[in-house]
Amino acid sequence: MNDNDYSLKSLTPESTLLYFLRTLFGSAAEYAVYIPDSGDVIVLTKGQLVFLVERGCADAMIKTLPQLSARNIVRPINPEEIEYPDEVSALYVETTGAFIGTLETALYPDEPQYPQWWDAPVPFAITSRGVLRLNDTAISMFGAGLEKLNASELPERDEFIVRLEAPNGARFMAFRKLKPGIFTVDDCTEDLTDAQDITWWAAVGQTWAREIEAKGGKWQRLSSPPEGRKKGYRACEWQGQLQGYLDIQMPRRKSPPPKPPEPKPEPEPIPQQQEEPIQPEPLTMRRADDVIGSIGPQAMALLAAGQSREHEGYY
C-alpha cells in the first residue's frame, strides 16, 4: 500500500481542504470534485484549492464547499465547459469515500460509485448523491420499495431503523453501517414486534406492582415457590418458559366495627282537625198551650202525681 492509496481511503467529506489539496497534488488528477448528497456538484482546479487554503480556509471541511460557493468565496467551474472531459482525470470525494475517475463522471453524478464487493450475496444499501440504492440481493429479499426513501433524510448514525408502510402492515428495516454511506440491511419487523410486546407487558407488570404497593402490600421476585405456602404467589411465564415466581403479601383486612342499630323512624303525627265551635240554638218563646201540647201522657201523669204530693205536703 503506497501513500496515495492511504490518502484516498482516509479522504472523506469531513477531511480538511488542506488535506484535500495535498491528496490532489499526490495524485495524477487535475481537478478536485465534491459530490454532496444533495445539491450541485462542486468542481475546483488546483489553483482554486490553493486560493482557499491561503484565504484561511485550510481547516474548513470539504463538505463546507457548497456554503463557501454560496458566499462567493470561490466560484466552481462548469464541467461542461471542459473539452474532452472523458480524458481528464479528477479526484472525487463523496459520502462513501474518495476515488479517481474521469471528469465525465461529474457531468452525470446520479449513479453512486459502487464498491467492488457490491454484488456479494449480502443485502447492501448505499446512500450517496441524494439517492438510496440496493444491491440485487437486497431487492430480491425486501423488494425495491426501500429505494423510494430520501437518502438525505436518513439518520446520520451507525445504526438506525426505518419504518415502511406496506399493504399487509408496517415493516421495520435495520441499517448497520459498514463504511460511510454503505450499510447492511435486515428486516427486523418480527424482533421489533416482540420487543414492543415485551415492553407492553413490562408496563403492565409495573402498573400492577404500583397498585400492590399503594394498597400497603409487598412483592418480591423468587426463583422457586415460597416454602410452606400454597397461595399468595404467581408463576410467571413468557412464551411457555418459566421466568420465576412473584410473591405477593397483602396486609390483613380488619373487620369493620358493627354498625349501630338505626333508630326506628317516629310515626308522623296525625294532623288534628279543628273542632267547630258549637253554636247555641236560638231560643224560641213558646206559648203555654204549645208546651202542654208537646207533653205526652206519661209526662202528664208524672206531673199530676207530683202535684198531689206537693199538695199533701202543705196540709
What does this structure look like?
It is built from 9 helices and 12 strands. The chain has helices at residues 3-10, 17-26, 46-57, 65-70, 104-107, 136-142, 189-214, 288-294, 297-314, and strands spanning 31-34, 42-45, 89-94, 97-102, 124-128, 131-134, 159-164, 171-179, 182-187, 218-222, 233-238, 241-249. The strands form 3 sheets. A 5-stranded antiparallel β-sheet has the order 6-5-9-8-7. It has a 4-stranded mixed β-sheet with strand order 2-1-3-4. Helix 2 (17-26) packs antiparallel against helix 3 (46-57). The longest helix is centred in the middle third of the chain and has 26 residues, at 189-214.
Rounded radius of gyration (Å): 55 Å
Structural class: alpha+beta
Helix content range: 25-40%
Biggest beta sheet attributes = 5 strands, antiparallel
Strands in their spatial order, largest beta sheet: 6-5-9-8-7
The span between the termini is: 185 Å
**Percentage of residues in DSSP E strands:** 15-25%
H/E topology pattern: HHEEHHEEHEEHEEEHEEEHH
